[in-house]
Amino acid sequence: MRVLVVDDDIQIIRAMTINLRARGHDVDTAADGACALRLAAERPPDVVLLDLGLPDMEGLEVIRRLRGWSQVPIIVLSARHSAGEKVRCLDSGADDYVTKPFGMDELLARMRAAERRSAHTEEAPLVRTESFTVDLGAKRVVRGGEEVRLTPTEWHILEILARNAGQLVSQRRLLHDVWGPAYQSETNYLRVYMAQLRRKLEPDPGRPRYLITEAGRGYRFENTS
């Protein structure tokens, strides 16, 4: 499995990485929520091991954002023992909750169980809004029951934004990922293509609800009603 370990404790990150790699798993690590969400989009994991006490956002927020576009199994690893905390995590979309300290054999068994459940239930990731649905697996957009025709460049921009729903994606990153490192200052490219996407997807392109500009910084895909 490819495992994404999310924890701001360097000692725990190091121990988990050594133990998981020793058992043949690929491991990515993140010390905060923003990094975790970016890695989950760029290098989709088979399971996420998530601590709740992150420096930039609560683990619950990471769960909610991941569930906006992914069904990857999420196992919370936390020192918080309250039943209410467990219920909130599970209701937000976590698959399991393991309290610290825990045995590695137990954790591995829970990972295998989560993977088995995922293999039976996982569908192509969908990002839904009230106006349209982005099917990241099939690489298509449906609006009003009909497929919206996008150019490859329009799709690439939309895919990056949808996989990072709710987060600011910088102009520099979009230009680098879509056109390449030589185009990182060509912000006019983004203005043109974002206008095209809004004409195709937004109910009112002049007052966008889903493809939001943050002036001078970048763009954000907002999929909440």
From TrEMBL:
What's one GO MF term for it? cis-regulatory region sequence-specific DNA binding
**What CDD domains does its record include?**
REC_OmpR_KdpE-like, trans_reg_C
Q: What residues are annotated to bind DNA? A: 124-223
Q: Which Gene3D superfamilies match?
A: 3.40.50.2300, 6.10.250.690, Winged helix-like DNA-binding domain superfamily/Winged helix DNA-binding domain
Q: Which domain of life is it from?
A: Bacteria
Q: Which residues carry this modification: 4-aspartylphosphate?
A: 51
Please indicate if the UniProt record lists Ubl conjugation as a keyword.
Answer: no
Question: What InterPro entries does the entry give?
Answer: CheY-like_superfamily, OmpR/PhoB-type_DNA-bd, Sig_transdc_resp-reg_receiver, WalR-like, WH-like_DNA-bd_sf
All copies of domain Response regulatory, residue ranges: 2-115
Localization terms from the record: Cytoplasm
Function comment = Member of the two-component regulatory system KdpD/KdpE involved in the regulation of the kdp operon. Upon phosphorylation by KdpD, functions as a transcription regulator by direct binding to promoter regions of target genes to positively regulate their expression.
Q: What is this protein called?
A: Transcriptional regulatory protein KdpE
Upper classification of the source organism reads: Bacteria, Bacillati, Actinomycetota, Actinomycetes, Streptosporangiales
